[in-house]
From TrEMBL:
<dbReference type="GO" id="GO:0004497">
    <property type="term" value="F:monooxygenase activity"/>
</dbReference>
<dbReference type="Pfam" id="PF01494">
    <property type="entry name" value="FAD_binding_3"/>
</dbReference>
<protein>
    <submittedName>
        <fullName>FAD-dependent monooxygenase</fullName>
    </submittedName>
</protein>
<keyword id="KW-0503">Monooxygenase</keyword>
<feature type="domain" description="FAD-binding">
    <location>
        <begin position="7"/>
        <end position="307"/>
    </location>
</feature>
<dbReference type="InterPro" id="IPR002938">
    <property type="entry name" value="FAD-bd"/>
</dbReference>
<keyword id="KW-0560">Oxidoreductase</keyword>
<dbReference type="InterPro" id="IPR036188">
    <property type="entry name" value="FAD/NAD-bd_sf"/>
</dbReference>
<dbReference type="InterPro" id="IPR051704">
    <property type="entry name" value="FAD_aromatic-hydroxylase"/>
</dbReference>
Length: 396
C-alpha cells in the first residue's frame, strides 16, 4: 500500500503498542530504540479501565494474567506494624486485576509483533523534515515515512526537537523515586507494603513473580539523585534514609547489590497539542502522569490502539491531520483527569515534621478502616471503562 510507512521512536509500552496496532491496521512499521537492546527492567505497573479491553483485543489477557506480580492488597505500615489495609476490590481497586512489571508488559507486546516489524536498537532520531515525512537517524540513515510516532518517555529528545518550547510544559512534582530489585525474604508476602515517615520519606516493598522483591525509596526532591553515578546515588540514599526504620536498612543494602536501579525525579509533561503535521507524541513523552497519578502504562497501551483506529494508512495530509486530531480528542479528557494531583494529598503522603506524620497516619486509619476505603478503591479507576474504544479496522 502506498504511503503507509510509520516510524515509531521508543520501544516501551506506548511505542510497542503503537507498532502492534499500526501494523494490524495495515502500516509498514519500523521502531527505533535508543538503548542498545530491549529494556526489560522496571517495576510494578498496572493495566486498568479500558486498557483491559485493549489487552483483550490484542490477545494479551491470558499472557498478562500469567505474568501477574501476584500482589493481593496494599498495607500501610506504621512504626509498630500495619496500620491499615486496602484489599483488592474489583479489577480497578487499589490492587488491580492486572498488576505486572513494566518490562514484562513491554516484553509481552513485543512478542506479539510480527517479524515484518523491524526494531532497530541503538538508534534514534537526529532530525525531522517535511512535517515528519523525512527522518534522519543517528546511524545517518534517512527514512522516508508517512507518520512519525514519538514514544520516547518523559525525557523525549525528538519531542523537544519537533515541538516548540511553548507547546511543552514540564510540571515538577518535587518528588524523587528510586526503584530496584532486591532478594526476597521469608517475611515478604503477597501485599504491597508501604511505609511513610517524617522528613518527606517513604519506603515500599512489593511482590513480583520472579522470586525477588521490588523495592522503592521515595522522598521529597532535595538531593541530586538523578544523574548521580551509582556510588554517589547510594551514598545520597544512605544519608537521606540512614535513620529510617522498618525495611529501609534492608532496601539500602539490597540497592547496593542490584544492577537495575531506576531513578526518576517526577515531572509531569503537559502539551497544548500532541501532533504536528504527520508527527504525534504518545505515552509519557506526551503526557507523563508520573506514578503519583497512576495509569501511565494503561494510557500508553490504550494510546497505540486509539492512534491506529483513527489514522488510516495511505491517507493524504488532510486525512492524517484529521485522524490525529480525532485521536487527540478521544484521549485528551482521560489524560486531563489522571494528571490532576491534589497538592494536599502530596503533602499528606510526604509529611515533613513528626506532627504532620501523625496527621498522615490518622488519615490512613480513617481511609482504611471506614467506609472511605470504598471511595479510595473507586479512585483507582483511571482510563474509565464507561466509554467504548473507537472502531478498529484490521487490514492485516
Ligand atoms: C527501563 C524503564 C524502567 C521503568 N521503570 C519504572 C518503574 O519502576 N515504575 C514506574 O512507575 N515507571 C517506570 N518506567 C516508566 C513507565 O514505563 C512509563 O511511565 C509508562 O509505562 C509509559 O511508557 P512509555 O512507553 O510512554 O515510556 P517509557 O516506558 O519511558 O519508554 C520510553 C522508551 O523510549 C526509549 N527512548 C528514550 N529516548 C529515546 C530516543 N531519543 N530515541 C529512541 N528511543 C528512545 C527508552 O529507552 C524507552 O525504551 C520505566 C521506564 C523504563 C524505560
Amino acid at each position: 500500500m502506498a504511503g503507509a510507512y510509520a516510524i515509531v521512536s521508543g520501544a516501551s509500552i506506548a511505542g510497542l503498542s503503537a507498532a502492534l496496532w499500526l501494523r494490524r491496521a495495515g502500516w509498514d512499521v519500523t521502531v527505533l530504540e535508543r538503548a542498545p537492546r530491549f529494556r526489560d527492567g522496571g517495576q510494578n505497573v498496572d493495566v486498568r479501565g479500558i486498557a483491559r479491553d485493549v489487552l483483550d483485543r490484542a490477545g494479551l489477557t491470558e499472557r498478562v494474567r500469567a505474568l501477574n506480580t501476584t500482589e493481593t492488597a496494599t498495607v500501610m505500615i506504621g512504626d509498630r506494624g500495619p496500620i491499615g489495609e486496602l484489599p483488592s476490590d474489583g479489577p480497578d481497586g487499589p490492587t488491580a486485576e492486572f498488576e505486572i512489571l513494566r518490562g514484562d508488559l513491554a516484553g509481552a507486546i513485543r512478542d506479539l509483533l510480527p517479524p515484518e516489524v523491524t526494531v532497530r536498537f541503538g538508534e534514534s532520531v537526529s532530525a525531522v523534515h517535511d512535517g515528519g515525512r523525512r527522518v534522519v537517524t543517528t546511524s545517518t540513515d534517512e527514512l522516508r515515512g508517512d507518520l512519525l510516532v514519538i514514544a520516547e518517555g518523559v525525557r523525549s529528545s525528538t519531542r523537544d526537537l519537533v515541538f516548540a518550547d511553548d507547546v511543552v510544559t514540564r510540571v515538577p512534582m518535587g518528588i524523587d523515586m528510586v526503584f530496584g530489585t532486591i532478594p526476597r525474604t521469608a517475611d515478604d508476602d503477597d501485599r504491597w507494603r508501604w511505609y511513610i515517615t517524617h522528613g518527606g520519606r517513604q519506603a515500599h516493598l512489593r511482590p513480583d513473580p520472579h522470586g525477588t522483591t521490588r523495592a522503592l525509596l521515595s522522598c521529597t526532591a532535595e538531593d541530586d539523585l538523578v544523574g548521580a553515578d551509582r556510588d554517589r546515588l547510594l551514598a545520597l540514599l544512605r544519608r537521606r534514609f540512614g535513620d529510617v526504620g522498618w525495611a529501609a536498612p534492608r532496601i539500602l543494602a539490597g540497592f547496593a547489590d542490584t544492577d537495575d536501579l531506576y531513578v526518576d525525579r517526577l515531572e509531569q509533561i503537559r502539551m497544548s497539542t500532541w501532533r504536528r503535521d504527520r508527527v504525534v507524541c504518545l505515552g509519557d513523552a506526551a503526557w507523563c502522569v508520573t506514578p503519583l497519578g497512576g495509569g501511565g502504562a494503561s494510557l500508553a497501551l490504550t494510546a497505540g490502539y486509539v492512534l491506529a483506529a483513527f489514522v488510516p494508512p495511505g491517507a493524504d495530509d488532510d486525512t492524517v491531520r484529521r485522524g490525529l486530531a480525532d485521536a487527540e480528542r478521544w484521549l485528551r479528557p482521560v489524560v486531563d483527569e489522571v494528571q490532576s494531583v491534589d497538592p494536599r494529598v502530596l503533602r499528606l503522603a510526604y509529611p515533613r515534621s513528626r506532627a504532620a506524620l501523625a496527621v498522615t497516619r490518622l488519615a490512613v486509619r480513617a481511609v482504611t478502616r471506614t467506609p472511605l476505603s470504598r471511595l479510595v478503591a473507586g479512585a483507582g479507576e483511571v482510563v474509565p471503562t464507561d466509554r467504548d474504544l473507537p472502531e478498529f479496522t484490521a487490514r492485516r
